[in-house]
Amino acid sequence: MTTLETGRTVGAGLDRVDAPLKVTGDAQYPNDYSYPGMAHAALVRSTIAAGRIRSIDVTQALAAPGVLTVITHLTAPKLERGPMTLLGGSPPAPLQDDRILHYGQHIAIVVAETAEQARHAARLVRAEYEAAEAMLDLNDPRAQIVENPWGLDTERGDVDAGFAQADVVVEGTFTTPDNTNNPLGLMATIAFWHGDSLTVHDSTQWPHNVRTSLATIFKIPESGIRVLAPFVGGGFGAGLRVWPHVILTVLAAREVNRPVKLVLTRPEMFTSVGHRPNSVQQIKVGATRGGDLVAIEHHGISSVAMEDDDYEPVSFCSAVSYACPNVLTRDRQARLNIPCPGSMRAPAEGQGNFALESAIDEVAHAVGMDPLEIRLRNYAEQHPFLNLPWSSKALRECYLQGAERFGWSRRTPEPGSMRDGRWLVGYGLAGVSYPFYQVPCQARASVRRDGSAYVRSAATDIGTGTYTVMTQLAAELLGLDITRVRFDLGDSDMPYAPQAGGSGLTGALGNAVHAACRRLVREFLDVVRDDAASPLRRAALDEVTVTDGRIHRVGDPGQGESYVDILARHSLEELSADGRSTPPQAEELGMALSGAFGAKFVEVRIDPELGLLRVARVVSAIDGGRILNEKTATSQIIGGTVGGISQALFEETATDEVTGRIANATFGDYLMPVNADVPDMEVLFVGGPDRATAVGTKGVGEVGLVGIAAAIGNAVYHATGRRLRSLPITIDQLML
Amino acid sequence: MKHVETEARPAGQAPPEAPHVDVTLNVNGTLHRLRLDARVTLLDALRDHLGLTGAKKGCDQGACGACTVMVDGRRVVSCLALAAQYEGREITTVESLSVDGELHPMQAAFARHDAFQCGYCTPGQIMSAVCLIAEGRANSEEDIREFMSGNICRCGAYPNIRAAIREVTGEG
């Protein structure tokens, strides 16, 4: 492995390369495309949560102006279910029978000449149901329970013996609600067929998954399918899967033999593209009087749909965060009549960390120790159950530098002891140990006759900065000015890329780009290997370096030549090379693979008479490995923090307990932070490149969110003496 | 002022029951004659009939601000406006802000301060920010926070959006 050297381009806080397109409105999101002869689709959704469709009458809808077709379970063809993916099984194929498994299930798709006509006709479809009693409650005794769904339950030591030794045991039940991803971009699909081949624009975080899935579902070769997503209006996990509406749009386009566009409505976004499922967690932590953790037991249960998979091991964080000898973690899922849950920014970690880091705070108060001190005292110097050194871990520096920047030492320990006029002031903190995730990825790099480079991979940039950081990385690795490099993505015809998810894309793609660029330099050396005119004749890759569009011998810039000269002398238009990355293996490296770490410090202000809560300040200290672009990485942490504030204080998808209807499925009713709710915040990056990969990044897309809810809850306790274990924290919980 | 004739939908496709209206929209200084289904919103007229896809649809319920355009100098959420009611009004969209490839100062400030991530809310945020200054409502941090609160950014770029606006007001 050749480790990336630090240079001029990587790390710099450059403006996004796609900024001009985004600020002018020229960036094209899936629903911005239009094609001649394009028809428009609208969905009909079930109004019950469980049962069967007794009858469905489409007569009026079919007769409505402009309507081209209406497809229901009575007329839909048999469709294969999508394949197993990195994220588990695919969602069930739509319209395959008369069963209703959740409220909002698509029961028909209407296609018309215009969107207005399609929407109107969709309202004319009449369904009659035979309703069954829906299971909607996580505690429903009838619900099927899936034990240890991911095989991630852990046990080390003996927790009962641990609790027996403890001087202090704290125990609590924490609940987190359903949250809905709600990327601002309404998810859209445009599909058109040309014979047996298919082009699809989709709001996806993973174009190759759409291609592979549609090939399986429609039984056509992958090579005939092209999926495009150069810009996506956010995702936060909602674009990771091939949802039923995507399949229906493709089906409708085949039916009417025209391009068809479907744009989900905001209410449909609450039932069609996943959500963070609710959870109930029991956590019990034992410690000695001196603050040594001796036992942690963490049980979590989450809801999941009747016939779908979702990855939410909420208790797992307790297994990896502290050097505690006796730990037991257990996860379960309850199958309910709910829309399919799915990953939402920091799945599982967002919920589990709230319970764990609140409980650690309780232990600190119980033993009379500073919450910062107890975390340093129980610091996991090595991976707690692999017993390997971390590939990198600067969590201690996160705590210390974050505390310094925040002014943690000004905190007086007694709850309610800090005031500013009518405001009770509370300081809270939480730590984060985010899991490592990386999967294989490919990229292709070319240098052309004019000396410019073109690098591409079928990844997506959902706002993460992928376009920008990969441009920087390629420029660094090829020794080119950033203006001479174009990085492209969002097209399934490009080399394979995994999903933008799990905080794993930058690592996977960065290392693939690294491999492609290194191989490309070697290709140039191969061309001049026997070239008597070249100062690089017989040079090996490790004997050269690249700067200013030239390859030259290390330490001797005079002994080299430019890409342009090599290509011209050998009459080549361009040279290209493919690169791939595979995840590092802990056993081979003798290191535990590290994700990002973080320490979050929050100041809240509470008006005890009105129950008002204001987040006044947030400091996030993050070990994200190598930071490729300080500006976009900072934005990731700020954005994650806003997501964390939202989880802590605002978001709760409300399900009607009788009908299963989402009762707040609009932006007027589903609360999210607006500008005035969010303070200015500070972000510090500490630590250095991770040792496990050449590029050394660790992914910063999710670590920003995790820990904010616990830090706010801990700050509320410090301000009020009230321990709140149910999210979101609302005004009624704060009236003193 | 330019006049552009936009091809109306072919008569054969027009549904008999849905009333259509003839409307002339003045968008970014250009008059467009359109024959529209009376249900077409100003947002859909801009996006689907005039090809101006800068204004975005985030909720279609007037709650997110992604569709913000300027009408006679004021901010309007174009998803809640029927196109037929906007004849004779001066409509300005994000597409008009940059001239000959030169970014408007607000656009440049958004780029410098990384005041967006996915970029979907950005045209609406920028139109709102430009109007805010024109309305005299960007005079303090508190004002900016309050009067930009009709534009949701789900990526959470709010602090950077404020920094961009502050920079422009500081210059202005």
Summarize it.
Chain A has 736 residues and is of the alpha+beta class.
Would you write up a description of this structure?
The complex is a heterodimer of chains A (736) and B (172). Chain A has 736 residues and is of the alpha+beta class. Helix content of chain A is 25%, strand content 25%. Chain A has 18 helices and 28 strands. In chain A, the strands form six sheets. In chain A, strands 3-5-1-13-10-11-12 form a seven-stranded mixed β-sheet, sandwiched between helices. The longest helix of chain A is centred in the last third of the chain and has 23 residues. Chain A is globular and about 80 Å long. Chain B is of the alpha/beta class. Chain B folds into two domains: 95 residues, Ubiquitin-like (UB roll); 67 residues, Orthogonal Bundle (DNA polymerase, domain 1), CATH 1.10.150.120. Chain B is built from five helices and six strands. In chain B, strands 1-3-2-6-4-5 form a six-stranded mixed β-sheet, with helices on both faces. Chain B is elongated, with a radius of gyration of 17 Å. The N terminus of chain B is likely disordered. The chains are: A alpha+beta (736), B alpha/beta (172). At the A-B interface, helix 1, helix 3 and helix 16 of A face helix 1, helix 2, helix 3, helix 4 and helix 5 of B. Chain B: Pathway: Alkaloid degradation; nicotine degradation.
